[in-house]
Design a protein that fits this description.
By secondary structure, this protein is α+β, with helices and mostly antiparallel strands. The protein contains 20 helices and 37 strands.
């Protein structure tokens, strides 16, 4: 949303049909009047009418082009403009308009068969001269006053502005493709607020092609006329006759102007000419000062309100703020733009009594109250559209479309807007758009004044998202806290006032649902609005089902994180190949911090990046610690527009920013490992080969030791006790342990075998995977081969045990020591991998303690036991 649209939403910008609308607004309105597009009616008005008659004698009838209209890609509603003839006689305050258009399509029949003539009955008179339809050689008169409807449209009603304009509407009968519709009318009268001074504008370009456009202005020779063209170099033909100067712009084959979206309001997308007889800004200031005169300072309402606003001991700033808040909040915005009221403010006592007014009414009331309290306060005319280009215009009342207030109190200066109803906090921190220039409404002002731009109330929004992510099929909790500051807080209050709490919460929910379809609110939205600062906070909590999305091959889950609060501002215009500048919402700052609490550790890396373009900048930072990840984004707009020459570079930077937004995590699926994972044949072959070689080596070594008698042994050691010979006593426990050993080893091997499925092996050992650790490959391989070695040793020792071989004690001690060394090494290796859970570490530590205790008990036993020496003698 652009700045101006936000302001309009809060009811704080007044717009009039003025020169500040000379860009697209006037073009749209004029084309609507000339091409006569459909309208919205608010009921028929009785007691008001118009006249019919011949054109004024001073009018020169312009002939339209005789040739048939050529269809164009720029046609508006199936109509082509053949002639637009506008003639103005300033001495008689009359404006004559003559239009010829041709219907070229069925759409044109629908849209072009309705004619509408608008005027302000408070100071204007409408005279319709001609309405005809030419079909081939037949010319049909359709001017029938009885068929007209008089309506009051109030096109600005949604912005609380009532202009009182009436429209005479005629529904033409029997309109066909190929018909040429011609009509002419005169509007007589001028706004009395201008006090006889003329100022006006004429468009010299349109959104549709025009075969001929003529502008004729009759001007008294004894009065000075100033004119200035914008967006073109077309100059008028000037001639003098009988004390009257005649200015004529006669253009043929005027091409259509292709206005581009997001064009700044101050840029002359459509060429136009400005005319007027104000020679300086001093004359405009003097004219305006004559309108802002308080005639009822002794009104009881004013005296009573001034007394209630005065607080003993209050500082000047506190008093000014109290008065501003009263006018902003207690006087509702409502514009009555009838006749003189379009420029002349209402009396402050009247505004105070009726409790409503438009921008000039509220500004004048604010000045009156502050003056009554002893402070200097002056209305300031500003141009919300032209802004920094205001000095390029001719001085004229129509240049301005809004009024703010300049206050000097105890040496401090304040620029205040009494129409902004949703501002909070100190007046030094309240937002005022960068209007660039303004005109103080007081006699003696000779020039525009530069309005200093303040960073007080700069629009800023900070969003914190906390994702508490569950397992692959568990719920994920999301908490969102958005803090709006300055103008963003003001805008959000306006949205809440217009849409309501529930609708806003639903809009936020739908925004997140675009990314997370399984999202639902966990609690109502909480609003915290500070009155001491211009800050508003919204808090949301959600639960998300199916946060992890299973891939098509069902091998992994994907989790997405995306800063929606920034994405909405990184948007491209519809027209990317541009010849006109592109407007940006400035100043603008958006920050989003996403904290992700994961159910397990992922192998991630820290990352920082700054993308700077001609007009905007994006900062991205990613950090992680343990099972927590932080994603930080900050977007800032650097200027209020992008020149056409830099559009390509700006759009390229937007692409880079778009690509930098968001983050995704992949988590291998643990479902269906056996059925969906491919067999890891390389690891299997390595295991088979290793088992064959290791088992062969152990068996050969055992046979060799069995055949070789001990160097110090006699043929048969004497029996210490015949009863001690045999597999009895404590050897029964040794035998049970040896028999259970292979079963235990096979169980351990089966539990770890899933890690060797092809896809999981790649997930653990391939660089870049979310489960990758450099130690996984060597550790898993050594662990698996160690299990095979222990299983082989256990089987060999078990055979030696039942054969009562004399080498059994030696091999049994080797088995126990090997088991202890294996588990110790495994524990140390696993500790090097941070992603292993504490439960696994606890289990490994427990196994290590058990093995060490077994070594302490059984190694001394087999080494010292007389039964062992008496039994294992073969």
């Amino acid at each position: 949303m652009s700045e101006q649209s936000c302001v309009v939403l809060s009811g704080s910008i007044e717009r009039k049909t003025s020169i500040a609308d000379a860009g697209r607004l006037l073009v749209i309105q004029t084309i609507a009047a000339l091409l006569l597009l459909p309208w919205v009616t608010f009921g028929q008005i009785t007691g008001s009418t118009f006249k019919t008659g011949m054109p004024p004698a001073w009018v020169e009838w312009a002939a339209s082009e005789p040739k048939t209209a050529t269809k164009s890609g720029h046609e508006s509603g199936g109509q082509v403009l053949i002639l637009i003839d506008t003639q103005v006689n300033t001495a008689k305050t009359e404006t004559f308009v003559h239009v010829v258009k041709e219907i070229t399509t069925e759409s044109g029949v629908q849209n072009g068969g309705n004619l509408e003539f608008t005027w302000d009955p408070s100071f204007q008179e409408l005279i319709i001269h001609q309405i005809t339809i030419q079909r081939d050689t037949e010319r049909m008169d359709r001017l029938d006053p009885a068929k007209f409807k008089i309506i009051q449209k109030e096109t600005d009603l949604s912005r609380q502005i009532y202009n009182g304009a009436l429209s005479a509407v005629l529904f033409l009968d029997d309109v066909r493709v190929g018909d040429r519709i011609e009509y002419a009318y005169t509007v007589r009268g001028e706004n009395p607020s201008l006090k006889g001074s003329y100022s006006g504008i004429f468009m010299l370009g349109w959104a549709v092609p025009v075969q001929r456009q003529r502008i004729r202005l009759l001007w008294p020779e004894n009065r000075e006329l100033n004119f200035r063209v914008h967006g073109t170099t077309v100059e008028p033909e000037v001639r003098t006759l009988g004390g009257i100067k005649e200015f004529i712009w006669d253009l043929h084959e005027v091409p259509a102007v292709e206005a581009e979206d997001q064009t700044p309001s101050w840029f002359p997308a459509y060429p136009w000419v400005q005319l007027g007889e104000f020679n300086s800004w001093s004359e405009v200031a003097t004219w305006a000062a004559g309108l802002y005169v308080t005639t009822n300072l002794d009104a009881p309402e004013l005296k009573e309100e001034i007394a209630s606003l005065r607080r003993p001991g209050a500082t000047a700033e506190q008093t000014v703020q109290r008065v501003l808040e009263f006018v902003q909040n207690d006087i509702r915005y409502l514009g009555i733009e009838f006749g003189p009221n379009s420029y002349h403010p209402s009396d402050p006592a009247t505004v105070l009594r009726r409790r409503f007014g438009d921008c000039k009414d509220k500004a004048f009331l604010l000045c009156t109250l502050l003056r009554g309290l002893g402070y200097e306060a002056t209305p300031v005319l500003v141009a919300t559209g032209f802004r920094q280009t205001l000095p390029d215009l001719l001085p004229a009342p129509h240049d301005f479309d809004h009024v703010v207030v300049h206050v000097v109190a105890d040496g401090a200066t304040y620029w205040l807007d009494p129409t902004r109803s949703y501002q909070h906090g100190p007046i030094t921190q309240r937002y005022l758009p960068d209007y660039s220039f303004g005109l103080l409404v007081r006699p003696g002002e000779t020039a525009l004044i530069r309005i200093p731009f303040s960073d007080g109330g700069t629009p800023e929004t900070f969003t914190t998202e906390i994702f508490r992510v569950g397992g692959q099929k568990a719920l994920t909790q999301l908490s969102v806290i958005s803090t709006f500051k300055g103008f963003d807080a003001e805008w959000m209050r306006a949205v809440l006032a217009s849409e309501g709490h529930k609708r806003l919460a639903k809009n936020y929910l739908n925004d997140y649902a675009q990314r997370y379809p399984g999202i639902m609110p966990s609690a109502p939205m909480v609003i915290e609005d500070s009155t001491n600062s211009d800050t508003l906070t919204l808090s949301h909590t959600y639960s998300i089902t199916n946060f992890w999305v299973l891939s098509a091959d069902k091998q992994r889950y994907n989790g997405q994180f995306y800063p929606l609060g920034i994405h909405t501002w990184i948007a491209k215009p519809t027209t990317t190949v541009r010849s006109m500048p592109m407007e940006l919402s400035f100043p603008r700052r958006r920050s989003v911090q996403t904290r992700i609490e994961l159910p397990r550790e992922f192998k991630l890396s820290n990352f920082t990046n700054t993308i700077t373009g001609p007009a905007a900048e994006l900062f991205v930072k990613r950090t992680f610690r343990g099972q927590t990840v932080w994603l930080d984004y900050e977007y800032r707009v650097l200027t209020n527009y992008v020149p056409a020459s830099l559009t390509s570079a700006h759009l390229k930077s937007l692409d880079q920013m778009e690509n930098a937004l968001g983050y995704s995590l992949n988590w291998q699926s643990m479902d269906g490992v056996g059925s969906t994972s491919q067999f890891n044949w390389p690891i299997f072959l390595i295991a088979v080969i290793y088992t064959a070689f290791f088992a062969t080596g152990v068996i050969l070594l055992c046979r060799y030791q069995c055949r070789t008698p001990p160097a110090t042994a006699s043929a048969q050691p004497p029996l210490l006790d015949p009863k001690l010979s045999g597999l009895g006593g404590w050897l029964i426990l040794v035998g049970i342990g040896l028999c259970c050993g292979p079963i235990r080893q096979l169980s351990n091997m089966s539990k770890s075998f899933n890690s060797f499925s092809l896809w999981k092996w790649h997930a653990l050992t391939t660089p870049g995977g979310v489960s990758y650790q450099p130690a996984w490959g060597p550790l898993l391989t050594i662990e698996f081969l160690g299990e095979i070695s222990l299983l082989t040793l256990n089987l060999v020792v078990l055979v030696l045990f039942f054969q009562k071989r004399r080498i059994f004690p030696r091999w049994f001690m080797v088995l126990l020591a090997s088991n202890a060394i294996f588990i110790l090494g495994d524990t140390i290796g696993v500790q090097c991998i941070k992603s292993v859970s504490p439960a696994i570490m606890a289990k490994l530590t427990q196994s290590l303690m058990q093995v060490l205790i077994g070594c302490v008990i059984w190694i001394p036993y087999v080494y010292k036991s007389r039964r062992v020496k008496a039994t294992f003698v073969r």
